[in-house]
Structure formats: structure tokens, C-alpha cells
Amino acid sequence: MSSGAALSIHGMTAPAMVQPERVRELGEVLARAGAERLGVCIAGGGTKLAWGNRPERLDLLLCTRGLNSPCVVDADDLTMTVGAGVTVAEARARARAEGRILPLDAGEPERATVGGVVATGDQGARGAGYGRARDLVLGLKAVLADGTEVSFGGRTMKNVAGYDMTKLFVGSFGALGVITEVTFRLLPRTDAQGLLLVPLASLEEGKTLAAKILDSNLQPLVLEAVSPRSAASVGADLPSRHADAADGPLLLAGFAGHRAALERFVADVSAWSGVDGAGLLKDEDAEAAMDALAGFGAAAQPVGGDEPPSGGSSGAARRSGDGVFCHEDGRCLKALAMVPISGVWGLAKEAESLAEAAGLPLEYRIGAARGILDLWVGPGLDPEERAASLTAWATDLRAAAAAASGRLSVTDGLTMLASGFDAWGEVGASLRIMKAVKERFDPRRTLNPGRFVGGL
Amino acid sequence: MDDALLKELRGIVGRDNVLAGTVDLQTYEYDAWGERSLPRAVVFVHSTAEVVTVVKILGREGVPFVPRGFGTGVSGGSLALDGAVVLELGRMNKILEIDLPNLCVVVQPGVFNWDVSLALAPYGYYYAPDPASLKASSIGGNIAENAGGPHCFKYGVTTNHVLGLELVLPDGEIVWVGGKNAECPGLDLTGVFVGSEGTLGIATAAILRILKRPETIRTMLGVFASVEDAGGVVSAIVAAGLIPATLELMDRRTIGAVEDALACGYPRDAGAVLLIEVDGLKDGMDETVEQIAAICRAHGALEVRVAKDEAERANLWRGRQGTFPSITRLAPNYMSLDGTVPRTMLPETLRRVEALAESYGLPVYSVLHAGDGNLHPCFLYDGTKPGEKEKAEEAGMEVLRICAELGGTVSGEHGIGVEKLAAMPLVFSENDLRAQRFVKDAFDPRGLCNPGKVLPAAAGASDGPGCLRAGAGVSDV
Asked: Which of A175, A176, A340 sits opposite B180 (nearest CB)?
């Protein structure tokens, strides 16, 4: 066990950190932590330590990076089994070496671990075609709070033996157990891929075009839009951007499949967009741009005035010299809204209006086929004043999301908001069952205590 | 059932909507699995409010209950055990909303699967999961069993298409889980409810994801000398970067049975046929079909037939859709299995199943969702002969043991129900089962909702290892 004075979550410091190398060791750590009534927070690559609420207790930070059993790729079966501590980039490279795609499109793939991405249910831009994280996991292994090892699902596409515990663990934010190994379904590599970049005059225009694409047979791999100033950060070089659309958002429509089908996709979307300046990135270029789009959350940073966005991280999380992750409060408030897909454009508009009224710089990424809106607001505000304006913005936008039958989570910068602001918002009547599940899996509240929804 | 309680229930749902006479109840004492257990009563419910009231009354009296759709389940999941009352949901059969901009529909549980796609057809959309029972099974039942179907290789099973559910919990409280928003922070209760076989509560409305109908569908039949050859084609198609919508495989004996019954033109001398369907944009489709045909030929296909029109397509499918009746008419009883293995293990699995059938002296017919690694070997037997049923049950358990050994599992789409309770320890440790009991206990601490299903009793409580239980009904593959 190493000392790690720098480890903190929302300003709380973990007095110790442990990085088990074996599942059995992890079980022993958790059993002992439970017996001693410790609060254990879980980290993979440390990219999402700012998610969730302030822990009730933080006695130990558990790092899963040591659970890095080698990836087993079964190319013919289209499955891959990988240790939770392996990074997404490494797992993807292993699948790629076998001519397959790991359809897990996470931000910061060089740092984010497979286990962390599954535990948070994160899925990036290519989720439009790949599906939700929950739909890609065929099976997983975990260690429960009392140290017992469990295994759910398996390596087959279909599995209805017992309850679908795999679904329960995907996105469970470490509240029920620590994921140690995951089996994914893989996809074959396709003939061709392309990413079409369509400058938009307005969000309204984007909504109309996205609706047209979604109501077609085109089945996009990616259907996103980014705020005007962020276009450059996704590697979009648009030599012939339409003059009228220069200040508008940028729509990105991606496709993978047969080369002839890609041509059809490009022809249809270009025709519907009515924009001459639609740019097309093909194959490797398209893939690189889609990768950049996935990393957008890490790279994007709102800037004041006309300054171009910097390509660096938001500063929310940094790797310290000894390989231990520390976390300082982000200078930037990040939020993630989840709404029925048709509501995502209106909510982006609302976010923009609210930010403008409060003088807050804002960047966004719209997942038009996913119903996801990623938002970045701040920074550059007077720390004395920002709490009030950011809290008001987040509160109002959360209400707007709720009015659109959706939800809003704060995924970074919670400490900049007024104390008591809940990172996840109201859950509704089903919280009762979630609490009952938590009580049975983790009666001593050992794992990520208080960090997940409803104080779970 | 005591008269006061019957009277109270009739006061809620109407006099004619509660059955309590033995003859009436006998209609509801079995499902498509075939074994029987008489319910205490049957209550037809018409609204979420009625479900709530009935569940609360039964809870007050400590009477267990079982939600039921149209009884097409093949593992005994809707059987009323322990004197349970059946809640018949077939009359809650409305499509509540078609929401095209959000690519979803909201339906009641008693809607037939097929009717969802029928209602969406005018808009060019459909609901993807397609169990063979789709014209007879309810969405609520599909959700309870996490139903599959031939098209799941590309499109996934029921759970991949359920966005949200209105649930009446076992204590009568209504909660919504999930929603029209695909992502929702919190534990994925929708995910754990789908496939829970009616043991965690009653789904009274469901939000289902819908898909645009493919622009083009092309269907072909590959004829092979052996199951190994056909299995090799499945891997080669995947390796070529193609994801067909379906990859359905039939073995030699099954081909013969189908031809005897339906004469749809499958070659009797073939060792296996592979029904392949691809769908998507019309652009590049001819090339894709030719590519698949070439892969078939490279793997020793004796013949590749590509359907030229809808009539030919229907004919190719006719044999597959009629497979089960064609087999089961050959003997008084059958036992159908539903194991899955990683798809490359299918040829070996079938070899071992064949050897097993021979050693038990039982004829076996196999039909497979080859893309998913899901196999349905069907053993024929005569239940009137002493020991035959037990023999079939033993052979069935051996098949599931083989699937588990080869890295698969004991049910791909039919569910555990009562039938496969004894097979659960083949794939789950006591710790795995204990975690699943946590879930059951969190939803239903009193154990009133569909007792006796899915989870075997905790270790020590049972009388030693059980065996698979053969049913006697019409199966659904």
C-alpha cells in the first residue's frame, strides 16, 4: 500500500492508495476494508474521478490498473476478453491487430481503462452506430464489496441464463462491485468509412438535417454536431466553408460499410444539407477525425473572445510523476445531458441562451443519434462570482432537460457549484429499488459511498 | 380461493374477469413448455391501475402471483406454482404512442410482437426482435424472456431494443425505469428487468426502440456436405467484414423432416443448409451477395441459391419457419434444448450431441442460429414408454453440460423457468447465484412474484443435484 497524499476527489484526499495485481488480492483488500468500515473509491485511468458526488468517506483509493490480464481476442467468434485495468487504446489496438474493431468509443483512450469505461457506461460519438456500452458487453467478472468473486454473462451473443447482471453492472459506477474483467462483442472491419463535415447555419438547421438522416435508411456510424469554436479541435479543416455558415455549428456524419454504400451516404447527406462546402474525410482520415471527436471531451475548453481553442486537457486531471493520479478541481464545469433524441437540439439552444445571458463561455457536442449533449462552461470567471452563475446555469438547464424528459449530470467542476448541488439530479421513484440493490450488495457502504445517484 | 377475496378482486376488474372454477383454471395451468400446475385464480387486468390494486390486495393476503401474456414460453416461466394467482395481461394490448422523431413506440404488455411492426409499417419502420412466436407472443412475455429470433445476429435481442418500462413492483408501487432517453444515470434496472422471467414485477408499459425497414433484403441458401463446411462459412463471412442479418443452419436429419412435411425444395442429400439473409442499402448489395456466394463455394458449397423475388424468399424461409412442427410431429414427445456456445464451437458441439444421442438411443434433430452460436437440438421420445422421459431429460442435461464446457451457456433465448433450474449450477457458482438473489430480494423481498422460477434454491436447501425437466408442448425456436 503506498501513501498518496495528492489523491483527491472533489477536494477530499485519500490517505492511502492500493493497486492490486491480482483479483484475489483485490478480494482481500475489499474484505478487510469492509471489516474496518473504510470508504473505498475506485479509479481506473482517473479520467472520471470528477464524476459523481463527494464521497461520504474516502479512506482508500483503489486503482484497478494492475488488473491488466492480457487481452484474449477470438477473431472468428468476434469476442474479446480483457482485464479491467487495460487501457481502451491498448484493447482497441489488440482487436485491430486481429482485423477486428472493439466498438468502445471512449474519450482519452490512452488513459481511460476498459473497466472504468464500462463502470461509467461511457460511449462516444460512434455510439450512434456501435450502440450503448451496455449493448457491447457480453460478460464480466467483478469482486463484490465482501470480497467474493462473481462472474456474469459469458462469451456468447445470446444468454438468458439467470438475471442479466451484466447490464446491472455496466454504468453502476462502482456502487455494487469492482469490475475485474470484461468480455466485449467485436465487429469486423468494414470495407470503407467516411466522415462528412457539414457547416450549419444554425441549430435549427442541424435538427432538420439530423431528423432527415435518422428517418432514412442510411444508418450513420456518427451523427454529431459541435459548437462553432470547437470545430477546429476535431481536426476539421474546411477550406470551402460556406460563408453564411461560418459562425454556425458543424455537423459530422460518419458511415462505415460497403464502398458503394458510403458513396450513397455521402451523396444523400450532401444533397439534403444543401451546402456546397460539405467536406469529406475518407478512411484513415475519417477514422482520425472520429477519434478526435471521441476525445473532444478531454480536448475542448471554452475560451473567451475569438481566441482559438487550445488542444490541451481541461486541466481537470493530470498524471503525476510517479504514475499516481491526482485530481484538482477543474476550471471548467462539464455537464452531460441525456434526452430523447429529438430534444437534444432544443436543449443545446437552451444551454446556449442561458450561458449567453449569464456571460458564460460555452462549448458543446451534440450526439444527435444518441440523445447526448456534452457541455463545457466557464472558465475565466471570478471564483467569488462563478458559484452563483454556474449554479444558476446548471439548475436552469437541468430543469430544461427534465422538461424534455431527460436528465443532466455534472461530470466535472462540481466543487465550483453551490454546496449541495447533486451531480446526478433526481432519479425518481425507482431510486427505492436502486437503494435496495445497493444495501444487499454493499451493506457496509464500502464502495464509492455516496458518490452515485441518490447518495448510493 | 376464499370467496371474500374473489369478491374483492371481482369488484376491481369486473365479475367476468376473475376465473376460479377448476375447468376454467385448467386452460391456464400450462404454457408451451407443457407441464401443469393449477393456478389459484386467473385475473384479467385492463389497466396499470387495476394491476396495482390487484397486486396490493394479493400482497395483503400473502398470495403469490404470476404475470402471464399468451403462454407461449417454452421453459415454464408463466406456470403458476405455490398456489399463485395468474395476472392475465393479454387485454392490455394497446399501442399507446408512435414517436417517430424519437425512434420509439410506447406499448402495453399484451400487444402481439407482430402487431408492433404492423402498426409501424405505414411509416417504414419496424420492431426488430423476431422470435418464431412473434404472431402469438406478447411484448410483455418477450421482455420477461428477453426473446431472441433469427435476426439477432445483426440486430441484437429484446434487451437491446427496450429503452424504458413502467413497472408495477411486487408491493404494488408504480415506477418508471429508463425512458425515451437511451442513457439514464443510475443502476440499469431496465437491463436487469428484461429477461427476469416475471420474477421482479410486472411491466405494464414499454418503450421500444424502432428501426427503419431495410431498403433491400436478399436471402440465399447455401447447401453443404457437412455441418463443418457450413460452420466454416459462418466464420469466413464474418472475417470478410460482413454482418448478415441471419445465419440459420439445419442439419441433415432436420432437412429430411422439413422436406417430408413441407416439400420446400431443400436438397435431401445435403449434410447441412445455411439460410443467409443480408439487408441494408441497395448500393453494393449485389456485390455483397456475390461475395457471400463465393465464400460458400470456396468452402465446398454443393449449391448456392439466391432468391430472385419475394416468392422465392418466402419459400426459402418456409422450411425454416416450419422446422419445429416438422420435427415434433414425428414422435409423441420431444425435448428441445437451447444452449449457446461461441460460434466457432458449433461443429464440435453438434458432433458431441450426435454421439450423445446415439449413446442414449434417441433421435436428435438440430437447428441452429449459427451466427449467434445458439443451437436447438431436439430429442424425440415416447413418454408413454417407461424410462423414456427420464432418458431424454438426462440427455438434455448432458447437452447443456457440453455447451457449458465449451464456453457457452444453458439458455440462449428460451429462459430458465422451471425447466432448467437444475442446469444453473453448470454456469454459475454459488456466489454468482447469491448476487442474483440480492436482485430478487431487492425487488421482491417477500418472494410473492412468480415464485419457483429462474434461481435454484440456495445451496443446502435443495435435495442434491436436480435434473432437467422435460415439458410436452409446442416449442418456439
From this structure: A340
